[in-house]
Amino acid sequence: MFGDRDQLREQFIKAWDRARNGEEMSALDSALAELIREHPEYHELLADRERALTAEFPPEGGQSNPFLHLAMHLSIREQAATDRPSGIRDLHQRLCGRFGPMNAEHQMIECLGRALWEAQRSGTPPDENAYLECLRRLERSPVS
User: Fold this and answer.
1) 3-class DSSP state for residue 102?
2) What does the domain layout of the chain look like in residue ranges?
3) pTM, entire model
């Protein structure tokens, strides 16, 4: 999933179209469609190609970017599947067992976002140890 903003958005839109139309899908399309199914609040947007391609989601608007949100879910699931960084597979499983899969991943997205923001701010690769420690803190936190 590399390319410019419109190409990335188009990939989500096409995967959702293929899923809704019962068309054959690649593994990536299937993964994207599953994430979209789990987020019904994005269905209307993704069904409107032009709106989805042109919509802006500035932070001051108070609305999260659905494409970024879904991509972060995908990243976390890929990390868990490949156990990269090492240990994240077990953390993901334990957090999902404790908080439920969707709630756990939403909390994990906060840690991933923080790690990516810090890396961008410092101009360095993401600090895997800090990221994993953030996830471990989630594991120790009270269930809300």
Assistant:
1) helix
2) 1-55, 63-144
3) 0.91
